[in-house]
Amino acid sequence: MPIPADAPILTSAAMRVAEAACAAAGTSLSELMERAGAAVADTAWRMAAGAPILILCGPGNNGGDGYVAARLLGERGAAVRVAALAPPATDLAKAARAAWTGAVEAIVDGLPPAPLIVDALFGVGLTRPLADDLARRLRGFADKRILAVDVPSGVDADGQHGWEPPLPADVTLALGALKPAHVLLPTARRCGTVLLAPIGIAADRTMCSLPRQAARSPDAGSHKYNRGMLLVRAGPMAGAAALAAAAGLRAGAGYAVLSGADEAPFAAIIAEDGASYAARLDDKRLGAVVIGPGYPASDALGRDVAAAIAAGKPLVLDAAAIDVALPRLDGTPAILTPHEGEFARAFSDLAGNKIERARAAAERVGAVMIYKGADTIIAAPDGRVVAAWPGSPWLATAGTGDVLAGACGAMLASGGDAFDAAVAAVGWHIDAARRIGPGLVADDLIRD
Ligand SMILES: NC(=O)C1=CN([C@@H]2O[C@H](COP(=O)(O)OP(=O)(O)OC[C@H]3O[C@@H](n4cnc5c(N)ncnc54)[C@H](O)[C@@H]3O)[C@@H](O)[C@H]2O)[C@@H](O)CC1
Ligand SMILES: Nc1ncnc2c1ncn2[C@@H]1O[C@H](COP(=O)(O)OP(=O)(O)O)[C@@H](O)[C@H]1O
Ligand SMILES: [K+]
Prior knowledge:
Elements: H1 12-24, H2 29-48, E1 53-57, H3 61-76, E2 80-84, H4 91-99, E3 104-106, E4 116-120, H5 132-139, E5 145-149, E6 171-175, H6 180-183, E7 193-197, E8 207-209, E9 229-233, H7 238-250, E10 255-259, E11 270-272, H8 277-282, E12 286-291, H9 299-311, E13 315-317, H10 320-325, E14 334-336, H11 340-346, H12 354-365, E15 368-371, E16 377-379, E17 385-387, H13 400-413, H14 418-436, H15 442-447
Parallel strand pairs: 1-2, 1-4, 2-3, 4-5, 5-6, 6-7, 8-17, 9-10, 9-12, 10-11, 12-13, 13-14, 14-15
Antiparallel strand pairs: 15-16, 16-17
Helix pairs in contact: 2-3, 3-4, 7-13, 13-14
The site of potassium ion has 11 residues, from strand 4 and strand 5.
């Protein structure tokens, strides 16, 4: 399901800080609610296309947005009804309720539905799961078009609890910024198409969704070495390392060496005996080393990882190489690419949602983390985060992680910040997968 690219992601606490800063700078909270309600009204107007609309309002400011939207839709001539769970409890919601001159029905069994339901029950203020009765009544509307205001009600916006909403949305209109729940499973898949209403808050950009243009292009000043010389160290399953090396070239490396393999998928890749590995690590032109694809834990892996760390070159560590390297990374610029199982093994003590765990792991290791999965999170030791939801589910097939490791190597080898390199690699990987689509096998990503 689509999500706005390069959009800020704020927790509920950060939203309240941004809201207060806005108020301090002269924009009243009622103006923010008016803008939010206007954005809800516009989206509902387009989704309803003339059909009747039922707006479900909660007691807080999420409900307030619903009352504002009802008033504006009524002024436009839409057939709009309002049903409330409880009287408004905040001053802003009370004022918004008072300005709605129509009837307010109760959310009870038998409440007549409408083709479009606007869910303005709870937003970032939800503190516990919805009551069973309410959840059951909401499920009764599941066959209607659903527009969720900020988040589908019942979802914990911060993504701390994976509470499932009784009424998954077709469209979720995020107010001011995305929230963690829009980009983390299991809730992200309940939000439908996520749209962003920029209501005028100045959102911190430490956490963002994936930028649209992530791939890098060569220019007139490029040559094979400054585009990046990549060394991929093969283990016993040389095919995985070959995929990584080929992906490295496809993703923009100028030169790829596959060490410890007899053959490579492209003639352009230099496949050579592992005996020259140490000499390759010493090559001043070498931009990055990838190690881990197809290389299970063994003494040999330990030696090869240690040599790469000692060489001080930027590293991409995948699979078993992650565990081997962990205690001794020591400031070497690196990208680690664990999937769920590898992350759990290496960072079993970390708690919190996937963003918090990825961040804590990055900070602990002093390296960039690509915590893979359908809701991939990229985290830097300084706290920066990019969330890559929704990716491409066609990537759920063997070997695509090896391809990603190679792409990371390519981006890292061309120089610059390891976090930017990781973001570029994840973007390249997802773009390539989307171009291929149905039937994708990992080899397609390198033939592309
Ligand atoms: N922060 C901002 O910058 C803006 C926020 N706005 C809206 O305000 C919302 C947040 O408003 P609030 O903080 O008032 O919070 P909510 O409206 O999300 O809900 C809070 C209310 O629900 C009650 N509650 C929480 N969990 C419940 C449960 N499980 N069952 C029953 N009652 C429950 C609380 O006691 C409180 O009365 C946002 O999601 C957004 O829709 C917008 O008006 C515009 C600007
Ligand atoms: N359901 C999914 N939706 C989107 N991307 C996925 C999904 N499942 C896996 N991926 C992506 O596919 C890749 C799989 O990597 P990994 O698990 O290491 O596989 P392998 O070791 O077989 O190469 C990762 O980039 C991951 O983010
Ligand atoms: K809502």
